[in-house]
Amino acid sequence: MYSRLSDYLVNKVLDHVCRGQSFTPPVAHYLALLDSASTSGAYVEVDYTGYARVAYPSTLMYWSDTSSYPSTGHVSNGDLGAVRTVQQVRFPIAMDGTKKVAYLAAFDADVGGNLLYFAEVATPYTLSVSTGFTPIVPINGITFRIDEQ
Questions:
Q1: What is the mean pLDDT of residues 16-40?
Q2: Nearest in space to 66 (alpha carbons), one of 45, 50, 80
Q3: I want to staple 135 with a disulfide (CB 3.0 to 4.6 A). Which of 4, 91, 117, 141 is the partner?
Q4: How far is CA 72 from CA 64, 78, 90, 148, in A?
Q5: List of residues 6+ apart from 92 with CB closer than 8 A
Q6: pLDDT for res 102
Q7: Averaged over 107-124, what is the pLDDT?
Q8: Quick check: bond before 70 cis, omega within 30?
Q9: Do 111 and 53 contact (CB within 8 A), yes or no?
């Protein structure tokens, strides 16, 4: 799945690159399951019993570099313009309720915070939580690409 940047992140990157404003990247991307999302930052997060965002570290060992997949451990020098997750993401087991999951998103905090980017799930589905379903994003399941149109 390819991501869309939020207006918040676009503004932070532009201020940093073009206007010399400081920007401290988050120590982790707090991944979330969403029912709806928009670049303006409006979203509806799922809320099944047991749900919580998952911290995914902002390190070389958790994200591919931009030259090849799944190369990790060194600074990017490639021209792909994208990075991918190189570890599986496991959300907490669903204990109760049913929720539609249409988007995966990243925030800069485990609760609240700023929406950084989001992507549509390849096939939106209704999360059936009465059976103890565990939402999982596979290795290479998230591609973060800066390609604004």
A1: 88
A2: 80
A3: 91
A4: 5, 12, 20, 25
A5: 50, 51, 52, 54, 134
A6: 82
A7: 86
A8: yes
A9: yes
Q: Would you put residue 122 in left (φ > 0), alpha (ψ -120 to 50) or beta?
A: alpha
Per-residue pLDDT, 112 = 93
What is the gyration radius of the CA atoms in the chain, in angstroms?
16
Q: Which residues of 18-38 are buried (b: 16+ CB within 10 A; e: fewer)?
A: eeeeeeeebebbbbbbbbebe
pLDDT digits (tens, 9 = 90+) for 65-98: 777 655 556 666 666 677 888 889 999 988 877 7
pTM: 0.83
Q: Say whether 33 sits in a helix, a strand or coil.
A: strand
- What SS3 class is residue 42? coil
Spans of all domains in the chain: 4-145
Number of CB atoms found within 10 A of residue 73's CB: 9
